[in-house]
Design goal:
- Strand 4 and strand 5 form a beta hairpin.
- The protein is built from three helices and six strands; from the N terminus they run αβαββαβββ.
- It is globular.
- It is 26% helix and 22% strand.
- The strands form two sheets. Strands 1-6-2-3 form a four-stranded antiparallel sheet, with helices on one face. It has a two-stranded antiparallel ribbon with strand order 4-5.
């Protein structure tokens, strides 16, 4: 069976769209998240930090998580998670890493796509990979 890699952002959007229908209404998932791409700091881009904030005002009202959305395993161990942060803290964290080379285990690449989403407090034992 073949598999196609899917960004976490798009996987969560699909889950948000279909989980209520396929669970018979038993489950819901709001699926709030922002996909931040490398052009976000280009003032001529149609998607900038300002437009992301205008389209997603909720980010100013809650604590957030920021992480690369590039199919990287063990992001936490590699120091690639910003947890329980404000929008401004996430923005600074992403900007520090955007378009920078990063090595995780034996794989090296340039970070150019990030996900910012609501922080959900939970125990480490509740993490599933």
């Amino acid at each position: 069976m073949s598999a196609k890699p899917v960004r976490e952002y798009y996987g969560k959007q699909l889950l948000s769209k279909y989980i209520k229908e396929y669970s018979g209404g038993e489950h819901e998932f709001e699926g709030r998240g922002i996909l931040v791409k490398s052009g976000v700091n280009d003032p001529t881009s149609t998607v900038t930090w300002e437009t992301l904030l205008q389209d997603n005002a909720w980010v100013k009202e809650t604590k957030l998580v920021a992480k690369p959305d590039q199919l990287i395993k063990r992001r936490g161990k590699a120091g690639l998670l910003a947890i329980n942060k404000t929008f401004d803290e996430c923005k600074a964290w992403v900007n520090e890493r955007m378009n920078k080379a990063w090595k995780v285990e034996n794989v090296e690449g340039v970070l150019n796509t990030f996900l910012i989403e609501p922080f959900v407090p939970h125990e480490q034992s509740d993490e599933y990979y």
